[in-house]
Amino acid sequence: MTLLGNIIWLIFGGFVSGLGYIIGGLSLCLTIIGIPFGLQTIKIGIATLTPFGKINVVAEDSSNLLTMIFNVIWVILFGWEIALSHLVHGLILAITIIGIPFAQQHFKLIPIALFPFGRNLQDVN
Asked: Which residue segment(s) compose the domain that 103 sits in?
């Protein structure tokens, strides 16, 4: 089911979204200050490419001061827009029965979009 879900996800917008995140992350990495944020954007892009069969995991070092500072800066500059986008897309997809599994994937990406430092999507296996 996860393979089929990921294939359908990629065909209907997941590839373009993930590629957009990766290109945006690479452009953020052009500056020294933007490298940590660019790496997180690339991580979100990779998570957006194939979200089926993965769970949201909080890392052990997610409570240190630097991670919290980066998360606050992220939320103010980028995170709320990305999370709002996933929320709107998830709500639109949840209108139909066929769209509910895809809406769940958007809702799964919201915490990573809000606070990417200290969070990862890992395989269920």
From this structure: 2-123
User: Measuring CA to CA, which residue among 71, 102, 123, 113 is closest to residue 7?
Assistant: 102
What mean pLDDT is reported for the chain? 90
Question: What is the rounded CA–CA span in Å between residue 32 and residue 83?
Answer: 25
The structure tokens 């200290």 sit at 118
**CB-facing half-sphere around the CA of 6: CA atoms within 13 A:** 14
Query: What are the average pLDDT values for consecutive 10-residue runs of the chain, which has 125 residues?
Result: 87 90 94 93 90 86 86 92 92 93 92 90 81
Q: Are 74 and 117 in contact (CB under 8 A)?
A: yes
> For residue range 89-113, what is the model confidence (pLDDT) as tens digits?
999 999 999 999 999 999 999 999 9
Report d(CA 1, CA 113) in Å as an integer. Answer: 25
Domain count, the chain: 1
